[in-house]
Amino acid sequence: MLSEISISNLYFPPLFVYLGIATLLHAVLARLLRRGFEHAWHPGLLRFAVSVIILAVLVLKF
Questions:
Q1: Residue-wise over 11-39: b if at least 16 C-beta within 10 A, else e?
Q2: Distance in angstroms (rounded) separating the CA atoms of residues 16 and 9
Q3: pLDDT tens digits for range 4-45
Q4: CB within 8 A of 11, min separation 6: which ones?
Q5: Phi, psi dihedral angles at 11 (to 5 degrees)
Q6: Alpha helix segments (H runs only) across the chain
Q7: DSSP state, 39?
Q8: Which residues contact 50 (CB under 8 A, 6 or more apart)?
Q9: For residues 56 and 31, what is the distance between their CA atoms, to the nearest angstrom?
């Protein structure tokens, strides 16, 4: 797990960094899998689940 990240003497918690990376990855996946998200039973729930999976993988791997 990451520790705090300092940018110009501003300290960012690791969750903030993970959420930023997860948001970017989710945007890329949403663009690639646009039709898959639209044809799901509940598109909003699928988007949320994908976001949680991405965040969990980032936290567990790094």
A1: eeeeeeebeeebeebbeebeeeeeeebee
A2: 16
A3: 888 888 888 888 888 888 899 989 988 888 888 788 888 889
A4: 4, 5
A5: -95, 125
A6: 14-32, 34-38, 43-61
A7: T
A8: 26, 29, 30
A9: 21
